[in-house]
Amino acid sequence: MLQKKKILFLGAGSMAEAMISGIVKEGVIPPNQITVTNQSNIDRLKQLENRYQITGVKKDELKFTEYDLIILAMKPKDAQTSLLTISDRLQHHQLIISVLAGVSTQFMEQHLPSEQQVIRVMPNTSSMIGESATGICSGTWTTRENMNLTIELLKCIGEVYEIQEESMDIFTGLAGSGPAYIYYLMEHMEKEGKSAGLSESLTRQIIAQTISGAAKMVKVATNSPAELRIRVTSPNGTTAAGLEALETFGGGIAISQAVKMATSRSLEITQQLKQDTEKTAIMSTGVMK
User: Fold this and answer.
1) Global pTM?
2) For a disulfide at 157, which of 22, 45, 78, 94, Cβ 3.0-4.6 Å?
């Protein structure tokens, strides 16, 4: 069914590219049925065209009726303007899929035609290699068929988790932003390996394999991460010394705070968009609270 669908990406940033890369690599939709646009960066559109053999189109030249799936991939702050811009150009059967942090299905529905089908998605940049952890939740009027279709599409970029919308912010804090936490950890581990005389290339390979192996252990083992940690920690051994340093310097607290702050920011974006909508409504009616 996906082979016949035409997709439009509104936005040409890193997340759009990660998804396009995964979709093209898996071959679930032919590249000539994928279109991307952005505000004004023609060079970026040409870059994506050449890299993935898709089509880049200027926003004012788009024919929205041609597309079955429209994926919102611009900055969250531009969501309201973009939704209002496309609202009167949509048809009822078209499915709107948002990958924007903090943009709720309710917000989308408020700015689109009545009963427009919308889906909120939160992938991460591991989409580029088909290893994303992607959250998905449905809007009010979205059919089960379209949910299944979207899940099928997203499986080509990794694992998909259907969750309730109220869990989407914590999902963003864990998975949407999660790869960056791991990269940050790897940066510091790599620095220590290099300072001890290992080459940058070798250090990076060692760290990547170590983290990959630990992740696979968590996926296949019946033990919790805490139990696995305890099992590999011998009293007075090297691992115990490293863990003691993490505890002393607040490693666990830092990780927890990273997740909490990213989750909080997702919530803030939701609230800010809601407030902006209310201000716009007041200005348009001339009614002051």
Assistant:
1) 0.87
2) 22
CA-CA distances (angstroms) from residue 176 to 82, 108, 123, 133? Answer: 22, 20, 6, 8
Nearest-angstrom CA–CA distance, 234 and 143 = 53
One-letter identity of residue 273: L
Instruction: Count the domains in the chain.
Output: 1
Domain at 154, CATH number? 3.40.50.720
pLDDT, one tens digit per residue, over 35-76 is: 999 988 999 999 999 999 999 999 889 988 999 999 999 988
Length of the chain: 289
Structural domain for 158, as ranges: 2-168
CA angle 37, 134, 127 (to 5 degrees): 55
- ∠ CA(1), CA(130), CA(144), 5° rounding? 35
Tell me if 70 sits within 8 A of 92, measured CB to CB: no
Is 122 inside any structural domain?
yes
Are residues 160 and 136 in contact, defined by beta-carbon separation less than 8 angstroms?
Answer: yes
What is each CA distance from 98 to 4, 61, 76, 133, 205, in whole angstroms? 21, 22, 10, 16, 35
Say if 263 falls within a structural domain: no
In-domain check, residue 208: no
Judge residue 157's burial from the number of C-beta atoms within 10 Å of its C-beta, 0-12 exposed, 13-18 middle, 19 or more buried: buried
Residues contacting residue 255 through CB under 8 Å, at least 6 positions apart:
181
Answer yes or no: is 182 within a domain.
no
The token duo for 261 is 């702050």
